[in-house]
Predict the structure.
Amino acid sequence: MARKSLELDEDPAFQERFWTIERWCWLGFAALVLAGLLGLFGGGGVFSRASLAMSGASLDYPAVTRWQSDDTLEVDLSGDVHTVTLPRSLTEAFDIERILPRPSLETPSPLGTMLTFGEHSGGHVSMAIRATKPGLVTWSIRLGTEDIPEITTMVMP
């Protein structure tokens, strides 16, 4: 008895195209996973945070963050700098959830809200912030009398 082969339509050209597309999709998914691990979508990783250093202080801030997710803004003040001014651009971009240690004085000024820290701060101020809207957000902050250039943070949805 002779065996009959299955009568299936074969299209090797289609199969080759399908495999090529499948491999490109694998590469795309691998690129997305790698970008996530590097911090390009927020939530940790090498590229999720950035730092600025100047004569009077230093600032560690989120370069990429998630919308409606908690993040931190870390400020290290030097010996003669005791004030941090939060301009409107910062308070519109982020909700300030908590400031540790608490400032000894909060003063409204034309530049924004000026926070004065005493010796109890130890030179380090940590602010818990939460982005108010997704997209590219440009903001600034003033440490002592020194203005920091505008900072851009990517807020992922």
